[in-house]
Specification:
The structure holds two protein chains of two kinds.
Chain A: H1 9-26, H2 29-46, H3 49-73, E1 83-85, E2 88-90, H4 92-118, H5 121-130, H6 135-164, H7 172-204, H8 223-251
Antiparallel strand pairs in A: 1-2
Helix pairs in contact in A: 1-4, 1-8, 2-3, 2-4, 3-4, 5-6, 6-7
Chain B: H1 12-39, H2 49-72, H3 77-98, H4 109-118, H5 120-134, H6 145-160, H7 169-191, H8 199-210, H9 215-244, H10 247-250, H11 254-258
The chains are: A mainly alpha, B mainly alpha.
Chain lengths: ~250, ~270
């Protein structure tokens, strides 16, 4: 059973942005590893450790392999190579660059995915609705998140119906193209029709309405959380500037 | 007259604010791109390399969000209800195509459909929103929001200038769009991620790099190989799907009627 944090979604996002920017600017392997370790601990507490590990692994494995190919195996660093074979040239510096870039991406992926797992999507929609951004944004996010499982189910049902009709079961590229066509065309047509029907209902109700509205869902917030959000945003902007300035001064 | 009889018309200050946001977004995007191309920062992890990565990430994301906020209030309700459907189509059709090991992304089909039916502003907004929503599941796509906006914008532009009146023109427009999107997105791949996130594309970048190209040049060449083909297929499939829509449905979009997007299929 997954646990969710009863924090304002913007607080979680602001802290995540600060962590990502400061860790990226610092570019220290131990800091990146600590952040990733902490994220795994938090996801373990929330009951999402396996999900986070699988999702992160699926994204990071090809990224690390790609970076290893680009920087690790074909290094153009003038330092002596530790191994060389044809155009392939491996240097310590090349491997360090690949690892550093991989860890930079890993922090973004793990922290970002953890945010996605910890934030309650309904609370996020409510928080966007209560914020000064255009009301259309809240509608678009809510509609997308609720349409996603519905249309996924619809696509599955269309596939089953086509199999019962014994069409689109061919092999090879032609069979694949037939399957795509037989699933995509009914899905797109039905979804477009639904969208048009929804537009009529929304227009009739004066969407997007401005001004105060009654909301049944409240988003937990406090002055402490507002303070954390501001502090995190200041950290996200000034933290990297300070770190980069110190690095520059140190290198001179 | 207001498009919605129940709502007040937009004031001139709101219009001015939206225009300023659109101009600011475009200026940030163009300035960042030109700066990166002309200066070509050397180290991507040493010295100010981390600053370049963060700066590129932030500039592309802020530009995309400003462009989104500039157009969002202007979209009619029929387009607003179409956008979530397009976002879900991007994800579902992208997953379906990805599940059969065919080397295409096809993850922007919904964005292109919106561009074809509702115009370039709606297409650009769909591109940005698609990236923002998808980033909840795959955070690495976030700085590519501007590239996704460009796909939608170019789809709308192509439809406006008649790329859908003849079915064979759609993939040609897709190839041109792919070239532009590849060129705009490659600085993000280079300076934020140090290359690409796929093994196949990474091998291409490594091959170009071993031939003496700089990293930016190698990533741009790889994008120019991958993106035009992908966008040609996406534009063609989206055009076929738009052709398959009933005339009553496609004709309900003012953009389609105004610019005679589908030629004689939808009367003015």
């Amino acid at each position: 059973m997954s646990r969710t944090i009863s924090l304002h979604p913007f607080t979680i996002l602001a802290v995540a942005v600060a962590v990502i920017t400061v860790t990226t600017a610092a570019s220290q392997w131990w800091l990146s590893c600590t952040v990733i370790g902490l994220c795994l601990l938090i996801s373990g507490w929330a009951g999402d450790l396996k999900k986070l590990a699988v999702l992160s692994g699926a994204m990071l494995l090809p990224t690390f392999l790609s970076l290893l190919l680009i920087h690790g195996l074909i290094s153009r660093d003038p330092a002596p190579a530790i191994a060389q074979w044809g155009p392939m040239r491996i240097t310590v510096h090349g491997l360090e660059v690949a690892l550093s870039l991989g860890l930079r991406t890993a922090v973004l992926v793990v922290v970002g995915l953890l945010c996605g797992l910890l934030i309650d999507k309904h609370q996020l929609v409510a928080a966007i609705d209560l914020s000064p951004v255009p009301p259309q944004l809240g509608y678009l996010l809510a509609a997308t998140l609720f349409l996603l499982p519905q249309m996924g189910e619809k696509q599955h049902q269309i596939g089953e119906a086509q199999q019962l009709r014994k069409v689109g079961i061919g092999r090879g590229i032609i069979g694949w193209f037939q399957r795509v066509r037989l699933r995509a065309v009914p899905l797109v047509l039905a979804s477009m029709q639904d969208a048009q029907d929804r537009a009529v209902h929304l227009s009739a109700r004066g969407f997007p309405a401005s001004g105060p509205r009654t909301r049944l869902r409240t988003v937990p917030d406090s002055s402490v959380q507002r303070g954390i959000r501001w502090a995190a945003l200041v950290c996200a902007v000034l933290g990297p500037v300070l770190i980069l300035a110190i690095t520059l001064v140190g290198s001179q | 007259m207001s498009s919605n009889l129940l709502l007040p018309e937009e004031t001139s200050s709101q219009t001015l604010r939206r225009r300023i946001m659109a101009i600011a977004g475009t200026v940030i995007l163009v300035a960042t791109y030109i700066t990166l191309i002309t200066t070509q920062p050397m180290g991507i992890v040493e010295g100010l390399g981390q600053g370049v990565a963060l700066g590129t990430f932030a500039a592309y994301l802020v530009a995309a969000i400003l462009l989104l906020l500039a157009v969002l209030s202007d979209l009619p309700v029929s387009t607003l209800t179409l956008i979530p459907v397009a976002l879900v189509l991007n994800i579902i059709l992208g997953q379906f195509v990805g599940s059969v090991m065919i080397p295409l992304y096809i993850d922007s089909i919904g964005t292109v459909i919106v561009g074809f039916l509702a115009g370039r502003r709606a297409g650009a907004a769909t591109g940005v929103l698609s990236t923002l929503v998808w980033s909840l599941f795959a955070p690495t796509v976030l700085p590519f929001a501007a590239g996704a906006a460009l796909v939608g914008f170019l789809a709308g532009t192509a439809a406006r200038f008649g790329a859908l009146r003849r079915i064979y023109l759609a993939p040609i427009a897709g190839v041109i769009a792919g070239v532009l999107v590849g060129v705009v997105s490659s600085p993000v791949a280079t300076f934020v991620y140090g290359g690409t996130s796929g093994v196949g594309t990474g091998a291409l970048v490594a091959a170009f790099s071993s031939m003496g190209d700089s990293l930016l040049s190698a990533v741009t060449k790889q994008a120019l190989i991958s993106d035009p083909g992908d966008k040609a297929v996406v534009f063609l499939v989206a055009a076929i799907l738009v052709y398959a829509l009933p005339k009553r449905l496609s004709g309900s979009f003012a953009f389609v009627r105004r610019y005679s997007v589908l030629g004689k299929r939808v009367s003015k």
